[in-house]
Design goal:
Length: 430
Amino acid sequence: MKGTATIRAPGAAMLFGTLAGVFVVVFGAIVTLLVIDQRSLLASVTQLRTQSLPLSIEQQRLARNLETLRLEGERVLSARTPQARQQAMFVVNLMASHPSILANTRARDMATETELFLTRVLRGEHREEALQAEWVQLSRRLSLAADDISVEGISLARGEAAAMGAVIEASQQKLLVALTITLVFVIVLLLLMLRRLIRPLQRIDAALKTLREEAPALDLPPGSLHEIKAIEAAICQLHEILQKHEASRHELERLAATDMLTGLNNRRQFMHIAAGEVARSQRYGRPVNVGLADLDHFKRINDEHGHAAGDIALKAFADLIRGTLRHADTAGRHGGEEFAFVFPETTPEEAAVLSNRLRSRLDAMVIALPDGTSLRMTLSIGLADASVLSLEEALSLADQALYDAKTSGRNAVVLAPAPGISIIASGEPS
């Protein structure tokens, strides 16, 4: 028995040593790769925070400036007095010389083209019909350029986020391999310990019981757990990075779908949601209505109080929309002082009641300005039944109804039925 023990003990020690050595090497390599991936991920997060995201925000600002340039161009064409045109042209010149526009070749060229065109308008070099037709094309190009630049900014940050996701996925795979190796090692180690240590020790313990009480005891050295602690630390760090990545992704999605001034859905996001609501309504034969609203005489607010006051007024109206419409309704800023609505599960008459409620609350609201003065506004709304029409067709009818509301005295809600148009509710002209 002594001879057998002497032969087997070195073999067991060598087996355990070899197994532990292989485990340490493989596990250490995986941990090293995890640390490398972690550093790469941290570098990507840093680049996203310090470069990609600020550049994306700058692209959004450039897109907003181009849109402002287009809107001010609209003001130049729609102005009825030379003074108003000169004021609007002054803003156009300021926007065209903005550093963000000058830094972008495409934006700079379009700004220059817009300035030259509006200068021709002021000089009256061509007939108004020809100028209007040319402006339609130029305005469309400005709008498309703003959209393209906005998408470019979002794509830049999205590409960086995708690279981060790839690194995270690779790290997760390495971590899974590490955990699998650990599990296999533990199982093998337990089986070996059971066969080579525990069972022999049980036999020794049974034999020692027959000996005198002064017989020496057998002790086993404790193991080390520093590798497991290293894995736990790596998992915690990866969890924190995943949380930051998820927060960044949600913020980018919010920026892409939200109007920066009012916090409502932007035009693109509204059209996406409204198209889904119209499709769902027509699929199940349920009523749905759309609306277009325009703040009456909004240009007068900008002219008399400044654009900062106009922004305050738009924000106040957006807050009123959020406090008035139902949870199922969707609102969005359609452009400038124009807003769009979709009312699912709502008949034309119910949509008119909801719209008139919004109109009457705005009519009664007083907006305080920082300089101590106050504003009051009225609202014109055009509604159209979209139950059997495409979204574009329904919005076109709503736009015509909005025009009728304007021409009929403003501060009104007008519904466009199948044949003809009738005023559902109206207030005093403003």
